[in-house]
Amino acid sequence: MQVKKALIKNSIVGVWSKISTLLFRIIQVPLLLYYLGVEGYGLWIVIASLPSWLTLANMGFGSVSANEMSIAMANGEVDKARKILSSTVALIATISAIGILLVVLIAPFIPWESFFNLSRSRHKELTLTMIWLCSSVFLSFTTDVLSGRFRAARRAHLSMLLDSFKPWLELLLMVIVLRFTTRYDYLALSLLSSMLVYLFINTWLSGKSLPILSFSFKDIEVSRFRLLFRKGIAFQAFPLGNALIFQGNILVIQGILGPVAVALFATVRTMVRSINQLMEMVNAIIWPELSILIGTNNLVKAARLHRLGVGFTFIASVLCVLILSFFGHDIYALWTRKAIPLPQHLLILFLFPIIFNAIWYTSSVVHTSCNKHEGLAIRYLIASTMAILTCAILSYYYGVEGAAISTLIADFILIPYVIRRSLQLTGDNLSNFLSGIWDEIKSGLHTANKLISRSR
Predict the structure, then answer these.
(1) Transmembrane stretches, by residue range (predicted)?
(2) Is 11 exposed, middle or buried, given 0-12, 13-18 or 19+ CB atoms closer than 10 A?
(3) How far apart (Å, rounded) are the C-alpha atoms in residues 260 and 39?
C-alpha cells in the first residue's frame, strides 16, 4: 500500500511536471525566435549547449548518494544516511567552488567571438555569458543531493513538484530581460538567478521534509569518497553520452550545415522529444520506489514495477508517434509561426527512432536505481560516441535528414543488454517479463472499464 500511495503521488506530480516542461518549451521557442530571429536563436542554442559539458564534473555523486540514502533510510540506518549526505555535499561544494573560480579566471582569455564568427566588440558579452551559464551548471550539482533527501523521506513527489516550477521561474526572468535587451549575457544571468532562487527554496523544503537527515561537518567521511568516485564515474557516462548525442550533434550541424540548420534541427527535435518527456516522467515516478524495493530485496514487487513501467512507456510512445505523424507538421507550423519550414519526410525521420528508444529507456532505470549501472554506463558511452560519428557522416552526405536518424545506432546497441541485465537485477526472466507486461495491460484496461461503468 505504501508503494502504491507513493506511485500515485509521483504519477500525479509527474504528469504535471512534464506538462509544465512541455508548456515552457512551447512558449520559450517562439518567444526566443521572435526576439532573436532564426539565426540568433540558432546561435543561442549553440552557446547555451557548451556549458552543459561541465555537468561531467559533477561525477554523478548526487545520483549515487540519492540511491544510497534512500536504501539506508529504508533499512533504518539513519547515521549512515547522514554520513552519505554530509560527505556528498562537502565533495560537491568543493568541486563547484573550484569550477566556478577556474571559469572566471580562464573565460576572458578564450576568443569566443572567433568561434561563433561574431565581431570583436562582443567578446565581453560572450565571456560573461559563459561565466553565468557555467556558474549555473556548477550550482546545479547539489540538486540531486536535495532530491535524494526528499526520496529518503519518501516524498519524491515534492522534489518533482519543485522541479516543475523551475522552468516557469526561468521563463519569467527571461521575459523580463527580453523586454529590455537581447544580449546573451543578460539572458544567461537570468538563468543563473533562477537557479539561485530554486536552490534556496529546495534546500529549505528538503530540510523540513526530513529534519533528522541534515548536513554536519562531523559526519563527513573522506573514506566514503572512494565509493562515490567509483560509482559516480560510471554515472558520468550518461551525461557525457547525452552531451555527445544532444549537444554534440548541435556542434556538428553548426560546423557542417550552419546556424539555420541548427534552428531547424533543434526545434523539430524539441517537439519530437516531447514523447521522451513521457519516458522520463515514468522513470522519475518509479525510480524512488525501485531503489527501495531492490535495496530491501523485495524483487517480486520490483519485477512487477519494471514490467508496468516498460509496458506503459512503449505503448504510450507508439501512440504518440502515430499522433505526431499525422498532426506534427501542423503543430510545428503553428508553434514556430511558419518561420522555419518542416518537410513531412523530415518529421517522420525524427519520429522513427523514438519507438526503438522506448524499448530500453525505462528499463534502464532498474540499473541506475540500485547503483548497478557500470555495465550500462560503458555501453551507453560507446553507443553515444558511435551515434555522434554517424551524425557527422550522415549530416555531411544527407544534411539534416541524416542527423535525424543517426541516434538509431545507439538504440540498436543498448536494447539487448539493458533488457537482459534488468531482468537479472529484478529476478525476472524474459518469458515472465513479456507475459507480465500483457497482464498489466489487461489489468489496466479492466480497471478503466470498471471506472467508466461506475461513471455511467
Answers:
(1) 12-35, 41-64, 84-110, 130-148, 186-206, 251-272, 308-327, 347-366, 378-397, 403-419
(2) middle
(3) 6
